[in-house]
Write a structure and sequence with these properties.
globular; alpha/beta; two-stranded parallel ribbon; binds nicotinamide-adenine-dinucleotide; Rossmann fold
């Protein structure tokens, strides 16, 4: 996603708690002649968020787009009555509070710049429920409503807020989730295959193009929307309710 945005001419600030991986993305962007920088950031820490956003604004003079993508899954899959407060809080701290802090601290900057686009990477789990991962469902559902509220709050300032709701994308997060659910990787690979109408999980670039559209001027009339990636109600992983 970041590589696509950089290729299309965006100056990209990559932030993550994984310094090596973040720096690798920046090295790749720079190797193409792109512009970007890496900042270490734990999104659940408001002081760090405030500091990093002000440094990024100083470096690039403005911030036009924020993609809130930091997220964690709650593993292993545990029903509500067995879930500890500590695990609930851990998921909420990154998936909900992190989006809140990053939104809060970019809004003044976008107001100064005359507008912007905030893109929250949520999940199909924030639209439909299923019999599992309760904290993850709650976190992604909460931010769907935050996205709509912020879309309405800041529409007058030309700041758009949209959310993206992937099904299974073949990333480390999904591989970990599947294997800690007691499935082998091979069995796991078949679950997402059968769960999606197109018969296979998505790739990160499938999300990247959606994000690119929402970041661009071509989507200037789109706010409060959700971009969904359809999920077939699938009996083997239980029922799902929209
Ligand atoms: N992969 C999927 O199938 C899928 C499906 C639906 C939604 N999502 C959502 O997409 C987003 C990206 O997921 P992914 O699959 O690329 O997973 P990933 O694990 O590859 O990426 C998540 C990133 O968030 C970072 N992160 C975790 N905690 C952080 C914190 N406190 N502060 C800053 N960064 C932190 C991680 O270091 C990692 O780089 C997540 O919000 C996830 O919930 C993914």
């Amino acid at each position: 996603m970041l590589l696509l945005l950089a290729k299309e001419g965006a100056k990209v600030a990559v932030t993550d708690i994984r310094d090596k991986d973040g720096q690798k993305v920046i090295d790749e962007i720079k190797a193409w002649g792109g512009v970007g920088g890496f900042w270490h950031l734990k999104v659940s820490n408001e002081k760090e968020v405030e500091k990093v956003f002000s440094e990024v604004e100083k470096e690039f003079r403005r911030i036009d787009v924020v993609v809130n993508t930091a997220g964690i899954a709650d593993q292993p899959n545990t029903p509500t009555h067995e879930l500890t407060e500590e695990r609930w809080d851990k998921v909420m701290a990154v998936n909900v509070k992190g989006v809140f802090f990053c939104t809060k601290h970019v809004i003044p900057c976008m107001k100064k710049g005359g507008g912007g686009s905030i893109i929250n990477i949520l999940s199909i789990s924030g639209i439909i429920s299923g019999p599992g991962i309760p904290a993850y469902h709650a976190s992604k559902g909460a931010v769907r409503l935050m996205s709509k509220t912020d879309a309405l709050l800041y529409a007058g300032e030309n700041i758009r807020v949209n959310s993206v709701h992937p099904g299974f994308m073949w990333t480390a997060l999904v591989r970990d989730y599947l294997t800690t659910s007691g499935l082998t990787l091979e069995q796991g690979r078949n679950v997402p295959n059968e769960a999606h109408p197109l018969g296979h999980p998505g790739e990160p670039e499938d999300i990247a193009y959606g994000v690119f559209y929402l970041a661009s001027e071509e989507s200037k009339f789109i706010t409060g929307e959700r971009a969904g990636y359809r999920w077939r109600v699938y009996s083997k992983i239980g029922s799902a309710i929209e």
